[in-house]
């Protein structure tokens, strides 16, 4: 059936859609098996994509017909593999991005501030290509390669040891002088010429070609049968270490040299640059020769050379402070914008979305792009019917860059931003000073409550296995799940599943067991799951750390309704929580329906008190205030160090403060501490206590 012959989902009957979804599910599952497990695809990539697109379109139109283990539930997820899980001894981090020289200058300036480097002190940076492949971690014990794993979610990856052993760039043993435990990290990739040759072989054998070298590398690495991996031309560049039982070098540059000595492939274009200027020059040079390189790269990674500085810089939100990826300019394409639709988010924000004629940009088919907000549409004067330039940079959401004015249809009209929520009809409001417009319907708005539910079960929140967004959509659509607590009551609604297609005894039992497994939840995850505006993972952790238990947190948020209360003062005292976040928190806890949901959830769930990972540190759980000038480290570094040891850093002194660390020039805070008889430490005393010297 060609696309033209297929009925548009809008005009289909439910029965017809149900039948077609069933056929599509079986068909897609068959092609997945052929492709992933038997390595013997029968259809082209494009034909496969068309099947999936059709499935997505039908699922979007009839969410309640989504099959519980249908293709839609597997989008983006790793194929349920036969690989064992491996917990990384040290998390595999990701990198923050820089898109301009200005961003890079800001990166090095930030590092200088953090480390308090005098202007004359050089800051050497290693610049190396960012390989467009897949990262892997290789563990050597007593010099022998023992376990190799994918990145996974950064904490837990998959055991692909047998497959990694087939890659010639990866040595099986290390020299005698290597530490007992030594983890090497790097990128598995495929060269472009090898990729083309592989695709030719695949096609000659009637198989499905890969879309790009990265996909080919990924598909080859995830083979259950390592003989297939061995037949694929995979390579590996080493660029970092994970856990190591002994330090072997003092700088990243020396690490690269050592890795090469030990038989790893390291990237020949890497350079140690004496300053940012030299690093940027190398960026320009490599960017210019990018197309002639034998493999794909998508930017340059800059890393602070000194490892002791790397250690002091530590990380923020799962990315090191000491490294950044400077991305190459985004790829662009022209296409037609058919219409502007409006998406309603979890917090009611209305986001305009460009619905595009599908177009390939940087190897990926793009059919939607974010338009951010009303101001952005007005500023760029984007209208339905326009031909637009879109761009996609790495994993960033595609964006509309500009309108091709000369291709604008004569009858086009500027876009009228809705004044009523397209989902529930409630009024749309715009707060002073905010560009975002929001639906005022709260939980009355089905779109908002749906997004809140999706957030509640998402990966960093409750993370219920087998309960994806599509299921939540379907369950909400027919009233099975209206509030988060309903999820935990599904066990009492077994009868409602009897009529639902696709829910056999086994799949339902699995789902209910997965839900039961989450009846106990760590405090920081629970706080994050609530979806309070501006409370992401970092703030949720900060709040969990500061309040310890949910009861204490909730009581404090209620007390903080009184702006003059001590509870409000200590909330605002948390370093990192400003008035705007505090206001969002208090507002959330003051809403009647939120209170009802919380009562309900607290009845059903066990919310575990916050556990401090560094519980044995002398400052774990202590409230510290820094004041005056610190001489051995910057305020930022002191705060980061204290927090990593489990302390809570506050900006103001109160009876809850445990220690005040005062440098020269300390004024009112030190005075208040003295009045309250709170121990005051000098910077050196503080450093003695946390067992670290600054430099
Ligand atoms: S360093 C803590 N160096 O980029 C350091 N990563 O966006 C973590 N990547 O997950 C990585 N080339 O898969 C580093 N020369 C390079 C890299 C590189 C590619 C990948 C890696 C990482 C991702 C982060």
How would you describe the overall organization of this protein?
By secondary structure, the chain is an alpha+beta fold. It has four domains: about 5-75 and about 330-405, OB fold (Dihydrolipoamide Acetyltransferase, E2P) (Beta Barrel); about 85-315, D-amino Acid Aminotransferase, Chain A, domain 1, CATH 3.30.470.30; about 520-610, DNA polymerase, domain 1; about 625-690, 3-Layer(aba) Sandwich (Rossmann fold), CATH 3.40.50. Helix content is about 35%, strand content about 20%. A hairpin with a 2-residue loop joins strand 4 and strand 5. The chain is globular. Bound molecules: 2-(butylsulfanyl)adenosine.
Summarize the helices and strands and which ones pair or pack:
Layout: H1 14-37, H2 45-61, E1 85-87, E2 97-98, H3 101-115, E3 125-131, E4 134-141, E5 144-150, E6 156-158, H4 161-164, E7 181-190, H5 192-204, H6 213-221, H7 226-230, E8 234-244, H8 252-261, E9 271-273, H9 276-288, E10 297-304, H10 307-313, E11 315-316, E12 319-320, E13 323-327, E14 331-344, E15 350-361, E16 364-370, H11 374-380, E17 387-392, E18 399-403, E19 428-430, E20 437-439, H12 446-457, H13 469-477, H14 484-488, H15 494-498, H16 505-516, E21 520-522, H17 523-529, H18 537-547, H19 550-559, H20 566-573, H21 579-590, H22 592-604, E22 606-608, E23 623-627, H23 635-644, E24 648-650, E25 659-662, H24 668-675, E26 680-681, H25 683-690
Parallel strand pairs: 2-13, 21-22, 23-24, 23-25, 25-26
Antiparallel strand pairs: 1-6, 3-9, 3-10, 4-5, 4-7, 7-8, 10-13, 11-12, 14-15, 14-17, 15-16, 17-18, 19-20
This protein binds 2-(butylsulfanyl)adenosine.
2-(butylsulfanyl)adenosine binds next to β3, β8 and β13.
């Amino acid at each position: 059936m060609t696309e033209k012959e297929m009925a548009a989902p809008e005009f289909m009957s439910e029965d017809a859609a149900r039948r077609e979804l069933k056929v599509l599910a079986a068909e897609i599952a068959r092609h997945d098996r052929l492709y992933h497990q038997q390595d013997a695809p029968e259809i082209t990539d494009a034909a496969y994509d068309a099947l999936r697109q059709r499935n997505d379109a039908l699922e979007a139109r009839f969410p309640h017909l989504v099959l519980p283990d249908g293709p839609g539930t597997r989008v983006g997820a790793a194929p349920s593999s036969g690989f064992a899980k491996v917990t990384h001894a040290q998390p595999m981090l990701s990198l923050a991005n820089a898109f301009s020289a200005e961003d890079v200058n800001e990166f090095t300036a930030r590092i200088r501030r953090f480390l308090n480097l005098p202007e004359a002190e050089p800051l050497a940076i290693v610049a190396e290509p960012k390989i467009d492949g897949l990262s892997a971690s290789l563990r050597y014990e007593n010099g022998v390669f023992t376990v190799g794993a994918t990145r996974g979610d950064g904490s837990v990856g998959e055991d692909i040891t047998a497959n990694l052993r087939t890659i010639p760039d990866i040595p099986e043993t290390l020299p005698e002088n290597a530490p007992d435990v030594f983890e090497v990290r790097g990128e598995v990739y495929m060269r472009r010429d090898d990729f083309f040759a592989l695709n030719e072989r695949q096609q000659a054998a009637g198989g499905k070609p890969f879309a790009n070298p990265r996909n080919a590398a990924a598909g080859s690495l995830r083979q259950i049968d390592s003989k297939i991996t061995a037949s694929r031309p995979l390579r590996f560049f080493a660029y970092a270490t994970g856990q190591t039982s002994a330090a072997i070098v003092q700088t990243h540059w020396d690490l690269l040299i050592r890795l090469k000595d030990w038989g790893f492939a390291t990237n020949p274009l890497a350079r140690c640059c004496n300053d940012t200027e030299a690093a940027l020059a190398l960026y320009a040079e490599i960017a210019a020769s990018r197309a002639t390189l034998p493999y794909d790269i998508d930017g340059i990674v800059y890393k602070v050379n000194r490892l002791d500085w790397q250690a002091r810089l530590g990380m923020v939100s799962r990315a090191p402070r000491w490294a950044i990826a400077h991305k190459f300019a985004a790829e662009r394409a022209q296409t037609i914008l058919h219409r502007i639709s409006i998406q309603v988010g979890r917090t009611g924000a209305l986001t305009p979305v460009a619905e595009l004629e599908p177009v390939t940009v940087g190897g990926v088919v793009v059919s939607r792009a974010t338009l951010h907000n009303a101001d952005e549409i007005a500023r760029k004067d984007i209208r339905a019917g326009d031909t637009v330039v879109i761009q996609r940079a790495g994993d960033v959401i595609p964006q509309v860059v500009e309108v091709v004015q000369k291709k604008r249809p004569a009858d086009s009209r500027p876009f009228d931003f809705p004044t009523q929520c397209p989902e529930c009809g409630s009024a749309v409001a715009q707060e002073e000073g905010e560009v975002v417009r929001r639906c005022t319907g709260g939980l009355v708005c089905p779109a908002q409550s749906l997004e809140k539910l999706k957030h509640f079960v998402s990966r960093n929140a409750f993370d219920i296995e087998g309960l994806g967004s599509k299921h939540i959509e379907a369950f909400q659509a027919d009233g099975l799940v209206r509030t988060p607590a309903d999820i935990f009551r599904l066990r009492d609604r077994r009868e409602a599943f009897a009529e639902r297609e696709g829910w056999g005894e086994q799949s339902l039992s699995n789902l209910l067991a997965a839900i039961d497994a989450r009846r106990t939840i760590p405090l920081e995850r629970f706080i994050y799951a609530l979806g309070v505006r501006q409370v992401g993972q970092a703030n949720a952790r900060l709040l969990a750390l500061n309040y310890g238990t949910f009861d204490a947190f909730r009581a404090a948020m209620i007390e903080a309704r009184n702006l003059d209360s001590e509870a409000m003062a200590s909330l605002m005292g948390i370093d990192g929580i400003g008035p705007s976040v505090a206001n969002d928190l208090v507002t959330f806890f003051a809403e009647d329906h939120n209170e009802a949901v919380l009562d309900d959830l607290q009845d059903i769930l066990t919310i575990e008190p916050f556990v401090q990972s560094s519980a044995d540190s002398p400052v774990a759980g202590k409230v510290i205030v820094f004041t005056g000038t610190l001489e051995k480290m910057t305020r930022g570094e002191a705060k980061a160090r204290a927090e990593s040891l489990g302390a809570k850093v506050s900006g103001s002194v109160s009876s809850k403060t445990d220690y005040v660390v005062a440098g020269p020039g300390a004024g009112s805070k030190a005075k208040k501490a003295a009045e309250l008889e709170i121990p005051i430490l000098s910077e050196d005393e503080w450093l003695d206590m946390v067992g670290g010297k600054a430099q």
